[in-house]
Write the structure tokens for this entry.
Amino acid sequence: MRIETLAVHAGHAIDPATGAVSAPIHLSTTFERDMEGTYSRGFMYTRNNNPNRQALEEGVSALEGGAAAAAFGSGTAAAMALFQALAPGDHVLAHVDAYYGTTRLLRDLFLRWKLETDFIDMSDMAAVKKALRPNTKLAWMETPSNPLLRIVDLAAVAQIIRDVGAISVCDNTWAPIIQRPFNLGSDLILHSTTKYFGGHCDVLGGIIVGKIENEFFQRIRSVQYSGGAVPSPFDCWLILRGMRTLPWRMRAHCENAAKVADFLAQHRRVKRVHYPGLTSHPGHEIARKQMSMFGGMLSLEVKGGRDAAMKVAAKTIIFTRATSLGGVESLIEHRASIEGPGTTSPEGLLRLSIGLENADDLIEDLDQALT
Ligand SMILES: *Cc1c(COP(=O)(O)O)cnc(C)c1O
């Protein structure tokens, strides 16, 4: 099946009890045992498994072309589980431009757990090779990155990581459908399903998909049900519902973002636009190789630094000043002030999550805000 068909049908079945076309939501926390004491229907207690969570995991796993998936209450909880599946003394390589919350986890929490982490620029293959150690267990890639839209060559890094027997993880939150990390050598894919999967800024979630269901994936699975950071049945239902329109929404997000990026790149008040679809972007060639479209996220640097950027964000009418991304509505965010001390975001940078409005309205709104 092609991806649009998979998105509609994976994880879905007509309810055998009622014929319901849309899946029922199973709120029950506990499930009946057979007289022999077994659980022949497959469910025992909702922290361990639930019909809605199972449907979501099967659906996302099929969509990414994986063998199994484990869903969590947020993208951050999914990242937590992944790091908790490692052991003290293990070495992690993380992209220097990874999601701020993920780098904070590694810096603050997991340093005390004796995970050793190096943050490196993964677009620099020599830096990746140089950072390898005998105890390197995992490489965390993220592309396009946040908020500078840097591009990592997933296949090239995965090859280096595989050669030393370590695990390649791709945080694919920003590029579902349009980037297929398992085809590029990744072992695990992570999504914050809060973003494009949910798609409507109304549900928090995260998921890890394994290319194969190996021992490391089993460890993630046991962190999931022993640790208990699981999503509610309703949240699972919402995220799987979001998945059904994901390929078509992604196409529209990408088309809109490309138009907005072209407009901004020519604007006299704009110093720089970070969008991998622009031929001037340093990662454009690699993005063209590994992405079918260039995504719905972009950043611009306004001339005049922080004050000028804040004024633009204050003046937009259609764009909402808010964090997060991937919803139907367009958002604008001054990233440096959200990330706070230690941020690597330029002060004049505004990040845009391009929604599903008409691109011309978005362009007119940005034009009036910039001038
Ligand atoms: C939002 C985000 C996360 C964290 O997900 P939450 O659902 O907010 O916990 C991780 N990685 C990326 C790239 C994100 O955009």
Summary: The two ends are 48 Å apart (CA to CA).
